[in-house]
Amino acid sequence: MKIKNGAEYMKSLRRLKPKIYYKGNRIEDVTRHPATAPHVRAAAMTYALAGKPEYRDLATATSHLTGRTISRFTHVHQNIEDLIKKIKLLRVLGQKTGTCFQRCVGFDGINAVYSVAYEIDQKYGTDYLKRFTSWLIEIQDENRMVVGAMTDPKGDRSKGPAQQPDPDQYLHVVERRSDGVVIRGAKLHMTGAVNSHDILVMPTTALDENSTDYAIVCAVPIDAPGITMIFGRQAGDDRRDKQEWIDSGKPRFGIVGGEAVIAFEDVFVPNERIFMNGETDFTGMLVYRFAAHHRANYGACKTGLMDVLTGAVSYLAQIQGAAKGSHIRDKVTEMIHLSETLYSSSVACSAEGVPTPSGAYMVDTMLANVCKQNVTRFHFEVARLATDIAGGFIATMPSQYDLKSEDVGHLVKKYFMGVSEIPVEDRIKIGRLIEAMTGGTAMVESMHGAGSPQAQRIMIFREGKLAEKIKLAKALAGIPQRKKAKKDS
Ligand SMILES: Cc1cc2nc3c(=O)[nH]c(=O)nc-3n(C[C@H](O)[C@H](O)[C@H](O)COP(=O)(O)OP(=O)(O)OC[C@H]3O[C@@H](n4cnc5c(N)ncnc54)[C@H](O)[C@@H]3O)c2cc1C
Ligand code: SF4
User: Fold this and answer.
1) Ligand 1 pocket, 236 CB below 6 A?
2) Which of 16, 65, 153, 301 is the most buried (most CB within 10 A)?
């Protein structure tokens, strides 16, 4: 692996020249800018862990393409063990960063595109898998970070891509040349985009034959001509921008992944970097496989965050002298129960994984959807319980400047004291951490990341095998299975 640790990762980013804007100004160095550096540090943890003997087995894998040791984030799952190791790795990283460490979206994109490219080739005699694997070997050998770019702006949600008044609301091909294509449009909410090396572009939805120009899968360097990124704001970003470390709550890392708009203004993609081009009949399969892999993750990375939150409120309850209260213990128990329930479904959908025709392994899609659906509830319930235990001061406490002020610092220290043996600064720091992990931006990813709740409900109903379940019920009730019975479901 060319990039061996966090420092080398940051160095590699400084060699790139992506066009990034934040609050109207250009960011030249994402590794040092206060808005982006916390996210770079979170992603750097994925590189750092691979070098630590106790995590090496989780954080690295053996490439089935080259036999070389690679980062697990660039690996194509070869068996159930790979799927489970991924889940374990994500929980550890969630615990260590308390935020999104970003590399899984590209990872899941790699796995989805690999298996689908194989099946397109089987049907149409194309050579997408060959192109994809030669790109992937570069990614693996250099240990590059990939943005998984699926979500389009979508404009009017009641209309499909081809019906939008502005065709650029979904990324599409605007010109076809003998040596490649030119693409235009944008991808929104792009996790880790500003600190990645490459973009893996995928369609956002299943497409019909009227939308062939939208059925494009390809890889683009992050600093390719025509790419512009606009980095999004997060709750409390001004605190980080001003390096107010106590008030920011999580001084080293960001609130969520560090998302950006990626605009593609007529970007040329050479043929060797195109992995689907017009095969609309495979778009549903691609979106579905990507989504299932990504939904499986949430019961692991978010469980890592919930572990941190549970630890934070438990410590705060000690500082505030409430830890022995029976209802506090019960609420902490509920937080642990919900976290472990989520983790169970991540492990379960991995343990029930199956090989695709390409040999790459897929998670169980029903269980992966159930997992993500529960994240849209349990993480919020865990945050609610944390807020309950923490008390109102996480929303009302004075700033770090008042804490340190010669005029009023003594008042803050006096009236924000908990038990006498713990410094008030500890109570404020842990309160700010809870504020950062339960407020505004922090929770949105658990709702909409990997698809809004309804997207999972559609899949759960579709895969729910209702006809089989009706048969089971009829058999037990002694109702004959009539040949001409009305449709079961
Ligand atoms: C923090 C974060 C990180 C993310 N990272 C990535 C990433 O790295 N890569 C990536 O590709 N994507 C990423 N996403 C995007 C994510 O997958 C989308 O947010 C999600 O799919 C929902 O899409 P949307 O935000 O456009 O919301 P919408 O699709 O607009 O959904 C909003 C609501 O409208 C409903 N709705 C939508 N369409 C209709 C309709 N036609 N009729 C009725 N109701 C409808 C939905 O069910 C939902 O309740 C990220 C999102 C977040 C929040
Ligand atoms: S939300 Fe979780 S699974 Fe998605 S990229 Fe962030 S850490 Fe990975």
Assistant:
1) no
2) 301
pLDDT in tens, 20-75: 999 999 999 999 999 999 999 999 999 999 999 999 999 999 999 999 999 999 99
> 171: CA distance to ligand 1 center in Å?
16
Q: Is this prediction's pTM over 0.90?
A: yes
Q: How far is Cα 377 from Cα 393, in angstroms, rounded to an integer?
A: 25
Q: Residue 39 CA: which ligand is closest?
A: 2
SS3 484: coil
Closest ligand 2 atom number to CA of residue 102: 5
Tell whether 365 is covered by a domain. yes
38/30 Cα distance (integer angstroms): 9
- β-pair partners for 175: 182
Query: Is the residue at 319 inside a domain?
Result: yes
Q: Distance from CA of residue 95 to its chain's centroid? A: 15
The answer to whether position 138 is within a domain reads: no
Does some domain include residue 243?
A: no
Report the run of H or E that residue 462 belongs to, with start and end: helix 453-462
The CB density around residue 98, as the number of other CB atoms within 10 Å, is 25
State yes or no: is 301 an active-site residue. Answer: yes
Among 301, 365, 371, 438, the one annotated catalytic: 301
Q: Is the CB of 105 under 6 A from ligand 2?
A: yes
Most ligand 1 atoms within 8 A of CB, residue of 105, 113, 145, 189 to mutate: 189
Domain at 430, CATH number: 1.20.140.10
Cα dihedral 152, 156, 160, 161, rounded to 10, equals: -50
Cβ 290 under 6 angstroms from ligand 2: no
What's the domain count of the chain?
1
Domain that holds residue 314: 286-464
Mutation probe of ligand 1 site: the residue of 104, 107, 157 with most atoms within 8 A of C-beta = 157
